[in-house]
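Provenance and format

Records in this collection were gathered into a single text stream. Each protein contributes a sequence line and a token line. The two records reproduced below are adjacent in the stream.
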Amino acid sequence: MIPAGPAPADGIFRAEHMLRFFCTRLPSIMLIRRIPSSRRVFSALRPVRRKARDVIRAVRRSGAIPAFWRVVDARLIGPDGEPARGRMPEMMPPPRLLAWWKLALDARGIPWMTDGHSANARLFVPALYERMARTELYAVTEESRHGPPLPLPLKHNLHWTLAVLLLFLLWQGFVSGWWLLPDSAGRGFAALQNRAELWRNMGALDVARVIRNHEYWRCITALTLHADAQHFFGNLLFGGLLLGLAARRMGLGLALLLAVLAGTLGNAANALYRPPSHVSLGFSTAVFSLAGIIGADSALREGLTHGGWRKVLLPPGAALALLAMLGTGGERTDYAAHIFGLAAGTGLGLIAGYILRERGVPRPALQILPGLIALLLPLLAWLAAFRI
């Protein structure tokens, strides 16, 4: 005996059973009657599985990726304008090839973003640039497969390098008194300008003060001082040339930071090597460290990639030749500082070259942080020298 109940509830109960029947049993019965073989079943379900895979990929993207951006690392466009199916696996390429892809997109002015890590990473571009990006990446991939490795793309940052050199020139003019600041700049700055002896006494690499008084900031401040105009403009000429070459290879911010760090390490090693009476100053330690950075980076990222010991040993040999021609002559030349600077630059260049070889050159936006650190290190060192 069924208990009596209100009619609307009974109707809802029957509608629920009918809905379950149409959603579960009826589709399977129709599928069995209409598709007689298992091969047709799998062929019919293959597009569904592909669509489900694409949906999963779309859902997995983080909130930082705009919704209208498309993934371009799964299927590339061939030279005929059609999708190059079967030529590229549906996964991200190795880190080296991915770095080439990013540089190729940067060269064409195509914005891109990556999401995820390692094998789960994806490369996205705006929908309007999708076909252009796929065509460009296909060309880079095919050339890296069938031809010799592509030359290292260079950064177009010469204007920023000149701005850094101009800033260095303004600093040297302030220290040496080439131009005077207005009275509105303050009494403190007015007292420090045109006081070259004061600056040298406070910031030169005095080995006795570094070792005995633990004035380690002198390893950095000595890089920003020069004996005279000839000394300064010689370092500015060769240092600006080497800084520009390094900045085009690895970015200005990273190149400047490596130069400051290698120059500081070179001065520290020179202070340990020299007697207590030794005093030196100048940016030449960082200049030869730039030569070591470029030589080590070229040997690691281009020599090993192209193959052959000749291409591996040629860049460091060129750096040593530059040291022999410019870093060992003259009575006032501190050859030990140049040698230590070249050695420190070579070591940091090997580390940086290995990282850049695996992960690629940082984007221009990421070059700001190392550039600011490179400019803040001398400033903090001078603040420590004057106990401000």
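Adjacent record:
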Amino acid sequence: MLLDLSEEHREHLAFLPQVDSAVVAEFGRIAVEFLRRGSNPKIYDGAARKLNVSSDTVQHGVEGLTYLLTESSKLMISELDFQDSVFVLGFSEELNKLLLQLYLDNRKEIRTILSELAPDLPSYHSLEWRLDVQNFQNGKYLKIKGPRR
């Protein structure tokens, strides 16, 4: 299964080939941190100053990488499918390998974080409601209350 990235996500990821692989690895760390604790504008500002780009560019790059990693982890795509999904972005082989390694190293942790963020679905904690339904279906409720007239 290949990831279907929107044009906006492709634009956000287009910044990655312009920076060193160490920066991409750091963006990967920031992306996982973003999932854990939320956005931190100070990190984006500091990275933007070091890279001599706007803070928005850094933020979009991290958000694009976050989306790539979370969607891949959520869908549990295979190594080959991840490589094929990234290959269509036109990155260098070195960057593709780095992104694959980021995915493989972090997918379990990302899935754990995503499961913690997922809302709990409502569920019954006792069987009392079942007894009420069974009593109603068996007519016991009608016998006690009497038929409606």
